[in-house]
């Protein structure tokens, strides 16, 4: 599994609480958990498939943007956004 796929799975789980207090009963079948089915095959009211399309589009747009920058600027943006807001000296002004 690629890092992008891992992050997508984590994002779906966080957003839909697949494994949370009200865990989805279709986890064994859903592609975002343990199975191969799209979310609508498991539960027609689950919109994890649409959520994942938005996630992938955002991921790809971010990578395209970073690729358009000089390497040092792209690295600085990654580091800046990877820090916690409280650790950011700009937020302490």
Oligomer: single chain
Cα distance spanning the termini: 41 Å
Instruction: Note the beta-strand portion.
Output: under 5%
Shape: elongated
Q: List how many beta strands DSSP finds.
A: 0
- Extract low-pLDDT stretches: none
Give the H and E element order.
HHHH
Task: Identify the notable features of this structure and list them briefly.
elongated, single chain, 4 helices, 93 residues, mainly alpha, 54% helix
Describe this protein's structure.
- 54% of the residues lie in helices and 0% in strands.
- With 93 residues, the protein is an all-alpha fold.
- Helix 1 (3-16) crosses helix 3 (48-67).
- The chain is elongated.
Q: How do you describe this structure in short?
A:
The chain is mainly α and 93 residues long. The protein has helices spanning 3-16, 39-42, 48-67, 71-82.
Task: Summarize the topology.
Blueprint: H1 3-16, H2 39-42, H3 48-67, H4 71-82
